[in-house]
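Handoff note, outgoing to incoming analyst
You'll be picking up this chain. Sequence as last confirmed:
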Amino acid sequence: MQSHHGDSCATMVTPSFLPYIDLITQTFGVAIGGNGKAGKSSDEIGRLAADMIVKSKWNGDISMEVFKINAKDSKL
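Most recent structure output, in case you need it:
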C-alpha cells in the first residue's frame, strides 16, 4: 500500500486573504499572496496581472480595488 502526502512549498498570506494584484509604479506591478489557494486560480491571476501591466487595463469581473495592496496592513 502506498501513501501520499501533499504540502505547499511556500505560502504567502495577505491580511485580506485575497491576492494582491496591483501596480507599484506605472511600469512595475505585482501579483502576490496566493493564500494557499493560488494553484487553482494562478492562470487567471496571471492573466489579470499581465493585462494590467502590459496593456494598462483591468480586465476582471471584480473591481481592481479589491486586489490593491493595502500599505496600512502590509509590510511592503
